[in-house]
Amino acid sequence: MSLIDRDRAVLWHPYTQMLTAPAPLPITRAEGVWLYTEDGRRILDGISSWWVNIHGHSHPKLNAALAAQARELEHVVFAGCTHRPAVELAERLVEILPKGLERVFYSDNGSTLGAVNFVEVALPTQENTTRFMHIHRDVPGVMAKISDVFSRRKINLAGQYLRTDGEIGYVVTDVTGRVQVGMCIRKELEAIDGTVRTRFLYEAPQG
């Protein structure tokens, strides 16, 4: 039985209509930018396997580092524990972050929303809203420019929360419903002078 036949017997794939989708590529190995299939084809991995392998597959230096770390400590829960690589990386990140950003919170993906969004402590989730966060240097006019991004697109604001320590500030903006031009808005927010970072915190469900 081929790898594809075995796959179809026991698996569903993400972002795939399983009744009509073509057969998945049966990948057996990868090196650099190339994927190699069970039947001998070589295929360019043009999306870095969903943007994960940005340095290429089976990179010797990365493989050696992964193997060395796995021999020492492959994983430990980070709630209540710490370890040298986590501390060393955080120290290096803090060195290059803008002044005032002095802590690092590691998160693997958006599914950890409730655990990583520190503003949730002060600003509870609102129903049927989309929430943006804008971190910025404390310079004059930032709030007006943020509000202008939404008002020019006639997007209703459901609430805002802001905080600053005199050097770095953030503003959380809730807008009513889903935002069809969310990525465009994010780019406009990022273009504001003094911006450090913008992100979606959550999006209203499709109704």
Features:
about 210 residues; alpha+beta; 3-stranded antiparallel β-sheet; 7 helices; 7 strands
Helix-strand layout with pairing:
Elements lengths: L2 H8 L16 E5 L2 E4 L4 E3 L3 H4 L8 H13 L11 H13 L16 H4 L12 E9 L4 H11 L4 E8 L3 E9 L5 H9 L4 E8 L5
Antiparallel strand pairs: 1-2, 2-3, 4-6, 4-7, 5-6
Tally of alpha and pi helices: 7
- Strand percentage lies at 15-25%
Q: Could you say which overall geometry the principal axes of the C-alpha atoms support?
A: extended
The overall pLDDT average reads: 85
Any idea what the CATH superfamily of the largest domain is called? ACT domain
Order of helices and strands: HEEEHHHHEHEEHE
Give the structural class. Answer: alpha+beta
Beta-strand segment tally: 7
- Count of the separate structural domains: 2
Provide the spatial order of strands within the biggest beta sheet.
5-6-4-7
What's the main sheet like?
A: 4 strands, antiparallel
Briefly note the CATH topology name of the largest domain: Alpha-Beta Plaits
